[in-house]
Specification:
single chain, 237 residues, alpha/beta, Elongation Factor Tu (Ef-tu), domain 3, Rossmann fold, 2 domains
Length: 237
């Protein structure tokens, strides 16, 4: 059940080139892997959406990429600081899969450690832009790792796996083309987190989605008629 709590920061740890922000759990429910929380960013008007990365006892941990003022403010927090955290929000991954394979790209690694724990440590495949970014794969030690110019679809195993993925849009689109039933966690900037502002509305396969309520995890995208029509157009071009 979602709720807002003002919680204490327990620490910020370097997971190069990202940061792992750890806060007390207080009365917050960690939710289902793939759901997200809105975190107050000190000095910024709007909170920032973050997938839950880890949920150790009495803690919540979020993997943050310091790419803008809000995320840099989160990474600059110190032990004992207090921030507002709201969640869990959105739709997470469906866990009733027979043969899961986790696939992540870059900061799309963020929800996968918590997901891996929930599924008992299944195989995983991670792609990064550089060897420096790939150091973050330590959060998912069983993962096979590839670095640009190799991409995850280059080494994806044969059919028979249930794909659960998070990463950049081109990667997710490629995975859905290969496996229409893949579960993919889509990313977009969010302002409210519960569907009121339409700030996270994105067009996917010709259909507009508010990712905070329709996602962020979406399923069966490739099975939709408009996706097939789009693919037919591409092949005819």
């Amino acid at each position: 059940m979602r709720r807002q709590e003002r919680v204490s920061v327990l620490g910020v740890e370097a997971v190069r080139p990202y940061s792992l922000l750890r806060v007390e759990r207080a009365g917050l429910d960690p939710g289902v892997p793939g759901q997200f929380f809105m975190l107050e960013a000190p000095g910024r008007l709007l909170p920032r959406p973050m997938s839950l990365c880890l949920a150790p006892p009495r803690e919540l941990a979020f993997l943050v990429d310091p790419v803008g003022p809000g995320t840099r403010a989160l990474c600059a927090l110190e032990r004992g600081d207090r921030i507002a955290v709201f969640g869990p929000l959105g739709n997470g991954f469906q866990l009733d899969v027979e043969r899961p394979l986790l696939v992540g790209g870059g900061i799309g690694l963020a929800p996968l450690p918590y997901l891996s724990e929930a599924l008992g440590g299944p195989p995983a495949l991670l792609g990064f832009r550089s060897s420096g970014h790939a150091e973050a794969a330590a959060l998912l030690p069983q993962a096979e790792v590839v670095v640009d110019p190799v991409v995850v679809t280059d080494v994806l195993p044969a059919d028979g796996w249930d794909l659960l993925a998070c990463g950049p849009e081109p990667m997710l689109e490629a995975l859905v083309r290969l496996q229409p039933t893949a579960q993919v966690a889509w990313e977009a900037p969010m302002a409210c987190g519960f569907g009121a502002c339409y700030g996270c509305a994105v067009e996917i396969g010709g259909e507009w989605r508010r990712l905070c309520v329709d996602g962020p995890v979406l399923t069966c995208l490739g099975a939709r008629p408009w996706d097939q029509a789009s693919l037919d157009e591409e092949q005819a071009a």
